[in-house]
Amino acid sequence: MANLLELNNVSKTYSHGIIKKDSTVALRDISLTLREDEPSILTVAGESGSGKTTLAMLLLGFITPTTGQIIYRGKDISKLRGQEKLAFRREVQAVFQDPFAVFNPFYTVDHLLTVPIKKFKLAKSKAEARDKMDEALTAVGLRPEDIIGRFPHQLSGGQRQRINVARALLLKPRLLIADEPVSMVDASLRASILETLRNLQRDHGVSIIYITHDLTTAYHIAKSIIVLYRGGVMEAGDVETVIKNPQHPYTRLLIDSIPWPNLEQRWGAQKIITREAGAVSGGCPFYSRCAKAMDRCKTPAPMYRLAPFQTASCYLYEGHEQMDAAQLSETLPV
Ligand code: SF4
User: Which of 135, 186, 286, 289 stands the most exposed, by the fewest C-beta atoms within 10 Å?
Assistant: First the structure.
């Protein structure tokens, strides 16, 4: 069976400055495969500046890699034209962070649903369009009669985000890029939206790349995770293993800073040990903050396989089996 998506050694560098040219590496040598026959949810986690949003923009074809290729169902997405490009636009959908931004406040929310129906000619009549809207809204746990005809400001943030998911679902996508979909939604509604996304994968066969800075939500939705820092993969593997037993100093730092509910311990009582040193160009991206940095870390660390479904890019694990970037997907369970 062909792959749904392949990233082959994808890097993205932004150049800036007119007189003095400078560049920033936003994403560094990422390889990844999602299989077509096994819809999965993969979390990509990291702080701002880690390269998560660049990855989302690349996957949606909004920007092109500086090096490497992104292959969707056997075709390089930067070379898609005509009908193939239209099919890609329909099959790869996105849900973004701000559930309000996509709505036009002057139109009822149905507008957001009717536009893709018309653009992609999904219905032959108004009645069929309405049936499709009802079906998509019901699939994301909304009652169409509560939604159709309302204006965006009349709905909650959670309802608006579900409508965004319904809009994506209308197009029968194969891949959904969910970029921080619950970060602007009330905490009380997050779990139900994450459950909706999980249903899309389970019941509708949609693969999801879930992009987040929040490891607690990653834990609830995905089976596998990639932790990014300054554009590079720091740790990856089975979400349960990586979150319960993080090995990379950066993942540990992220986990330690989560305010897990623990009545015995006040949040912030536990000191997070880091150091701030000068960055080392070309070395480990985490060098300047790592409490365990060594001279060795001034050159980039390879990926080491620590367990069947856990890998970390860190010299602390020298001696373990070394992997190259292309083997990353072997450590991501579906
Ligand atoms: Fe720290 Fe060195 Fe590991 Fe980087 S490679 S995380 S600097 S110990």
Answer: 186
- The alpha carbons of the chain give a radius of gyration, in whole angstroms, of 21
Which has the closest alpha carbon to 46: 232, 307, 263, 245? 232
315 lines ligand 1 (CB under 6 A): yes
Nearest CA owner, ligand 1 atom 3: 314
Q: Is pLDDT above 60 for 263?
A: no
Give, for ligand 1, the residue of 287, 299, 318, 320 to mutate: max count of ligand atoms closer than 8 Å to Cβ: 287
- Nearest ligand 1 atom to the CA of 294 is 2
- Burial of residue 233 (number of CB atoms within 10 Å: 0-12, 13-18, 19+): buried
- pTM of the shown model: 0.90
Domains of the chain: 5-222 (3.40.50.300), 246-334 (no CATH)
At residue 37, the pLDDT reads: 92
**Which neighbouring-strand residues pair with 43?**
210, 225
150-175 confidence digits (pLDDT tens): 999 999 888 999 999 999 999 999 99
Q: Is 285 in the pocket of ligand 1 (CB under 6 A)?
A: no
CA distance 316 to 327: 20
Cα 70 from Cα 82, distance rounded (Å): 18
Q: Which of 175, 213, 173, 180 is nearest to 194 (CA)?
A: 180
Question: Which of 247, 251, 286 for a ligand 1 pocket mutation test, highest count of atoms within 8 Å of Cβ?
Answer: 286
Residue with the two structure tokens 């560098």? 13
Decide whether any atom of ligand 1 lies within 6 Å of the 316 Cβ: yes
Nearest atom in ligand 1 to the alpha carbon of residue 285 is: 4
